[in-house]
Design goal:
7 helices, mainly alpha, two-stranded antiparallel ribbon
Length: about 190
């Protein structure tokens, strides 16, 4: 049986170099915290509080997301990556065992193959962010499917964050009648 737990407050963990600590604390912290106002629900967990999704799957996804969503200004804020880790864990916990297996296998393939296509014999996490981004691009050009599956899932979750949506110009409104974009209408 599974239960909900309160999400830990990530706002205090936004200092550089604390992402791995924050993600590991999230994976271990599942005690309810109903005293806090405005607390969010944590990822779906087993009754005993253990994670349904393997923590290494979430950690691998965060390493890939850091490279995937980096810009000329650098990687995304660590607090947003920690938020993404929570959302991904919750999504995969609810998606079912087969979906977790496919995503985990795709992440493993990306984790192993991305450094190899760059002729690097190291972990993807140990590569600099810019080199990780190049490795992911080269891997997508070479193999496509595993990278595309991982990118699609991470993009859907990442751009649900209000700050990420604003960074690409989404204002939260639908296209209105004043919009220059219109679909052709056949009568």
């Amino acid at each position: 049986m599974t239960r909900f737990a309160a999400r830990p407050d990530l706002s205090a963990r936004a200092e550089p170099g604390t992402l791995r600590l924050a993600v590991s604390e999230i994976a271990q912290d599942s005690a309810p915290d109903s005293d806090r106002e405005g607390s969010h629900l944590a990822p779906l967990r087993h009754e005993d509080g253990s994670p349904i999704v393997a923590p290494r799957v979430v950690a691998r996804a965060v390493v890939v997301a850091e490279a995937l969503f980096s810009t000329a200004d650098g990687p995304p804020p660590e607090a947003r990556l920690a938020w993404l880790a929570l959302e991904l864990e919750d999504f995969l916990a609810r998606a079912g065992a087969r979906s977790r297996f496919v995503v985990g296998l795709s992440l493993f393939a990306v984790w192993v193959l991305a450094p190899l296509v760059m002729l690097r014999f190291t972990s993807l996490a140990r590569m600099p962010v810019a080199e990780r981004a190049r490795a992911l691009a080269r891997l997508e050009d070479t193999f496509g499917a595993p990278v595309l599956a991982v990118k699609a899932l991470l993009c859907v979750l990442y751009y649900e964050h209000p700050d990420a949506a604003l960074s690409v110009g989404f204002d939260g409104q639908c296209l209105t009648g004043d919009s220059p974009l219109r679909l052709p209408v056949r009568s």
